[in-house]
């Protein structure tokens, strides 16, 4: 039997963090060695003998948390938002100095959501029009969601490679924000509504037909299989992986 994965969870007191603590504790091949909240000393991770870190903290802390992990040779699975292209580039440089370390930054850990985004990217090159709608609870602090941004990026890349032009849109006048945000040429709309958890629709349209790809997370437990997959895979995937799709066999 292989050695257990020794895991430290950062942001353990949050909604996602508490679910991760539970999931790691219940995983037969893992041992939860540290649970840290905001302001806790990161040295506790090293003292506890962690080999892997799950960062589910806050955008203002995540870069320092992951840098600490990488500099100490710990693999990291990251679900915290705020990872701009510049931050990811800085992390990539750091990982080049620590080539045995694997880091996964995942905008979404729900396997169904990741698959839906991949399916949307495949389908988008066959349809004239495409837009994204993401729906979340009103406590979410960022809009659009990281998942929606990632989905739009994948769609845009797929359409560009296939030589598909921009979606037709004759809008000449509009109230600010009426057409949503634009991510790599793809319109993304955000809804914040009490009672929701995390939901996304990709609308694809062509002459005489429409295809809708929708994923719904009704409970944060839906994210935990992806977190555990990340922990089990990070060591064998050194360097930076952006998006859980990088750990899945999607044939892309």
Automatic annotation (TrEMBL):
Ranges of residues in domain Dihydrodipicolinate reductase N-terminal: 5-109
Residues the entry annotates as binding NAD(+): 11-16, 79-81, 106-109
Gene3D superfamilies referenced in this protein's UniProt entry, alphabetically: Dihydrodipicolinate Reductase, domain 2, NAD(P)-binding Rossmann-like Domain
Class of the enzyme per the UniProt entry, highest EC level: oxidoreductase
EC number(s) given by UniProt: 1.17.1.8
Keywords: Amino-acid biosynthesis, Cytoplasm, Diaminopimelate biosynthesis, Lysine biosynthesis, NAD, NADP, Oxidoreductase
Family: Belongs to the DapB family.
Name of the protein this chain belongs to: 4-hydroxy-tetrahydrodipicolinate reductase
Organism: Glutamicibacter uratoxydans (Arthrobacter uratoxydans)
Organism placement in taxonomy: Bacteria, Bacillati, Actinomycetota, Actinomycetes, Micrococcales
